[in-house]
Write a structure and sequence with these properties.
The chain is α+β, with helices and mostly antiparallel strands and 621 residues long. Helices cover 52% and strands 17% of the residues. Strands 10-22-21-20-11-18-19 form a seven-stranded mixed sheet, with helices on both faces. It has a six-stranded antiparallel sheet with strand order 2-1-3-9-4-7, with no helix packed on it. Helix 3 packs antiparallel against helix 4, helix 8 runs parallel beside helix 20 and helix 20 packs antiparallel against helix 21. The radius of gyration is 31 Å and the shape is elongated.
Length: 621
C-alpha cells in the first residue's frame, strides 16, 4: 500500500472512531435498559454522550471563535441542550448522526475517487537507467533529462521521452482512451503511463517524471478533488441563515407551549447534515464519472460552470478539423520552383512547434533527400515562423504575419488569392513573397453531430474563431453547422472576443487544442482542451481536459455536469424540505427528541445515497 492510500486509510479510521463510540454507547445503554432498567442505561448514555459529544462541542466553539460560522453549530446546540435537559439518548443519537455523516462522507469520497486512486497506483515507480554500459534500477524521481532508459516488455514507460533503439507496441489507453496499441520505433515519442507490449526498447528521457504527461494527469485529477465549487460554498453558508431560523422556531415553540423538550426536538431535526454532505459527494461523484470517460474536470467550480454554458466558442484547426493536415499543393512565384519553396519551408519548420509544422516537414523530407538546419528560428504562436536557412531569411505563416515580417502591402499576395477557401500558409524568402503551401485538414466526423445536440444542452449560440483566412473559416463553419465564423484573428483577438461574449452574452465555453488557444481557454468561463494528440494536457489554463481525440466528449462532459448539478440540487431541496417539515412537527409537539434524531439520520442517509448517483450518471443522449 502506498503512502497516499495509507493516509486515506488513517483518515477514514479517525473519522470512524466517534460514530463507532457513539453507536457502542447506544447499544450498551439499550442492553442495560433491557437488563437493569432506566437508571443504569441513563448513566451509560450520559457517559457516552460526554465522551463523544465533547469533541463536537470543542471543535464548533473553536471554529466560531475564529470567525468561521461552522456548519455543525445546530448539532452542537442540540448536544448541549440534551445534556442540560437530561436527554442523553437524543443527544447521543445526534452525535451518531453528525459524526456518522462525516464518516459516510469520507467513504463516499473514497468510493467516488476510485479512478484517481487507480491513476496513482498505476504510476511508474522504477526506471532502468543505462550508465557506463550497464543497467541500474533507480526511482523514477531520479531520472534526469537526457538519461538513457530501458523499457522491458510489460512495463510502464517511466517518463516522457523518445525511442532511440528497438521496436514495440504500447498501450496508450490510460492516457488517450484509444483501445488499439500504437507501434513505436526509433524517433517515436513515448509518454509516461504508456504500457509497453511484447518488445523491449531503449529511450532517451525528455522530461523528468514530475513533469511528465502522466504526472500532469494525476495532478489535474487530484486538484479537482481538492477544489470547492460555488455550490459547495453555498452549503457552507447554509448555517449563516439556517441557524437563526432554527433558533427562531425554537423560541416560538417554547413561548407557545412552555415545553423545553420541543426546543431540543427542533434542534435535533434541524441539524444541517444533508446540505453539508450531499453537495460535495455529488460533485466528486460527477468528477469521477467524467474521469471514467477520459474527461478530466479540474474543479467542482468548472463542473458547475460547464453545466450552465450558453455560448460555445470553437477553435478550428485541431478542434473542429482533425488536426492532422497534409500538404495538398505547393504554389511557387517569381521563378522559384515548388520543390524549392517546400524545401526551404520544411527546413524552417523543423524547429517549429505548431500543428502544420510536422506536415510541412514530412512533405519536404519526402520530396528531398535531406533538409538543411535552420538558425535563429522565432515562432509567433498562432501566426507563423521566421528564421535563417542556408543564408536566406525565410518566413512562413498566416497572410498578415508574412506581410508584416517582410514589409509588403496586401497587393503582394494578389497572385495567391484566387483560392482562399483552403488552409494556406504563405512563404517569403529574403523579403519577397515566393509562394504558398495549401493544406488539407478534414473536418472531424463527430463535429456536426455535436453542433446539432448543443442546443438541447442549453447552448444558444455557437462561434468559430481562427487565425486562418475568413473564407476558409466560414467554409468550415458551414460544413459543421456553426452559426458564426470569424477569421484572421491573432491569439489576442480570440481573447478579446471571448471576453466580450462573456461580459455581454452569458457563460462562455471555449473548446481548443490547448496550445495556442491557452489565453482564450483561460479567459472563457470554462475552457476545454482536446488532448488527443498528446500536447493539450500541458494547457494549465483549461478547466476541462479531454484525453481522447473525440470531439463528441464535449457533449458528454456537458451532460455529466448537468446531471451532477441536478442531483446535487435535488439533494439540497430534499434535505431542506424534510428538515423543515420535521422542525414544524417538532415545534408542534408531534416529534419527540429521540424520534426526531432517528428521522434526521434517515434523512441524512437518503440524501447522501441520492448524491452518490452522480458517480453513475448516464452520459449519452
Amino acid at each position: 500500500m502506498n503512502a497516499v492510500a495509507s493516509s486515506r486509510g488513517a483518515t477514514m479510521m479517525r473519522a470512524s472512531v466517534l460514530p463507532a463510540a457513539a453507536l457502542l454507547g447506544l447499544l450498551a445503554g439499550g442492553l442495560a435498559f433491557w437488563m437493569q432498567g432506566a437508571p443504569l442505561a441513563t448513566g451509560i448514555w450520559f457517559g457516552a454522550l460526554a465522551l463523544t459529544g465533547a469533541p463536537v462541542l470543542i471543535r464548533t466553539t473553536i471554529a466560531v471563535l475564529r470567525g468561521h460560522f461552522a456548519t455543525d453549530v445546530v448539532a452542537a446546540l442540540a448536544i448541549g441542550t440534551a445534556l442540560a435537559l437530561r436527554e442523553p439518548l437524543a443527544g447521543l443519537v445526534v452525535v451518531l448522526m453528525q459524526t456518522g455523516g462525516e464518516a459516510l462522507e469520507r467513504y463516499a469520497e473514497g468510493r467516488a475517487s476510485a479512478a484517481v486512486r487507480a491513476l496513482e497506483d498505476a504510476a511508474p515507480r522504477i526506471a532502468h537507467r543505462v550508465a557506463e554500459g550497464r543497467e541500474v534500477d533507480v526511482a523514477v524521481e531520479a531520472v534526469a533529462v537526457g538519461d538513457t532508459l530501458v523499457v522491458r516488455p510489460g512495463e510502464v514507460v517511466p517518463c516522457d521521452g523518445e525511442v532511440v533503439d528497438g521496436r514495440s507496441d504500447v498501450d496508450t489507453s490510460r492516457l488517450t482512451g484509444e483501445p488499439l496499441p500504437r507501434a513505436v520505433a526509433p524517433g517515436a515519442s513515448v509518454m509516461s503511463g504508456m504500457l509497453n507490449g511484447s518488445g523491449a526498447f531503449v529511450m532517451r528521457a525528455t522530461a523528468r517524471s514530475g513533469e511528465s504527461q502522466y504526472a500532469r494527469i494525476v495532478e489535474l485529477v487530484r486538484s479537482a478533488e481538492a477544489s470547492k465549487s460555488p455550490l459547495q460554498r453555498l452549503a457552507d453558508r447554509y448555517a449563516r441563515w439556517f441557524t437563526p431560523v432554527t433558533l427562531l422556531v425554537c423560541a416560538v415553540a417554547w413561548l407557545a407551549s412552555g415545553d423545553v423538550t420541543r426546543v431540543l426536538a427542533v434542534l435535533v431535526v434541524a441539524t444541517p447534515c444533508p446540505l453539508i454532505l450531499a453537495t460535495p459527494v455529488a460533485i466528486i461523484g460527477g468528477i469521477n464519472r467524467a474521469a471514467t470517460r477520459h474527461i478530466i474536470v479540474r474543479s467542482g467550480a468548472a463542473l458547475e460552470r460547464l453545466s450552465d454554458a450558453q455560448i460555445a466558442v470553437f477553435d478550428k484547426t485541431g478542434t473542429i478539423t482533425e488536426g492532422r493536415p497534409r500538404v495538398h499543393q505547393v504554389v511557387a512565384l517569381d521563378g522559384m520552383t515548388e520543390g524549392e519553396v517546400l524545401r526551404l519551408a520544411g527546413a524552417l519548420e523543423q524547429r517549429a512547434g505548431h500543428l502544420l509544422a510536422r506536415s510541412t516537414v514530412e512533405a519536404a523530407r519526402a520530396a528531398s533527400t535531406t533538409l538543411p538546419t535552420p538558425h535563429d528560428v522565432r515562432e509567433a504562436p498562432g501566426r507563423g515562423v521566421a528564421g535563417e536557412v542556408e543564408g536566406h531569411h525565410v518566413v512562413i505563416g498566416a497572410r498578415r504575419f508574412v506581410l508584416e515580417q517582410v514589409g509588403l502591402d496586401a497587393s503582394a499576395v494578389t497572385p495567391l488569392d484566387q483560392d482562399v477557401s483552403v488552409l494556406r500558409a504563405f512563404v517569403a524568402v529574403d523579403g519577397a513573397l515566393r509562394g504558398a503551401i495549401d493544406y488539407d485538414d478534414r473536418v472531424r466526423p463527430t463535429a456536426r453531430a455535436l453542433l446539432e445536440v448543443l442546443p438541447s444542452l442549453g447552448v444558444r449560440r455557437t462561434l468559430l474563431l481562427s487565425g486562418d483566412n475568413r473564407q476558409n473559416v466560414e467554409a468550415v463553419a458551414r460544413a459543421v453547422g456553426i452559426g458564426e465564423a470569424i477569421g484572421d484573428l491573432l491569439p489576442g483577438g480570440k481573447v478579446d472576443r471571448v471576453a466580450e461574449l462573456s461580459r455581454r452574452e452569458g457563460r462562455v465555453m471555449m473548446v481548443g487544442d490547448g496550445t495556442n488557444d491557452a489565453p482564450a481557454l483561460s479567459r472563457a468561463d470554462v475552457g476545454i482542451a482536446l488532448a488527443g494528440h498528446g500536447g493539450g494536457i500541458t494547457a494549465e489554463a483549461a478547466d476541462v481536459v479531454i484525453l481522447v481525440d473525440d470531439l463528441s466528449r464535449v457533449g458528454e462532459a456537458i451532460r455529466i455536469a448537468q446531471a451532477t448539478l441536478r442531483i446535487a440540487k435535488q439533494s439540497i431541496l430534499v434535505g431542506l424540505g424534510l428538515s423543515s417539515a420535521g422542525m414544524v412537527l417538532a415545534a408542534l409537539g408531534y416529534l419527540p427528541p429521540v424520534a426526531g434524531a432517528v428521522a434526521q439520520e434517515a434523512i441524512d442517509v437518503a440524501v447522501i445515497l441520492n448524491a452518490l448517483r452522480a458517480s453513475r450518471v448516464a452520459y449519452s443522449a
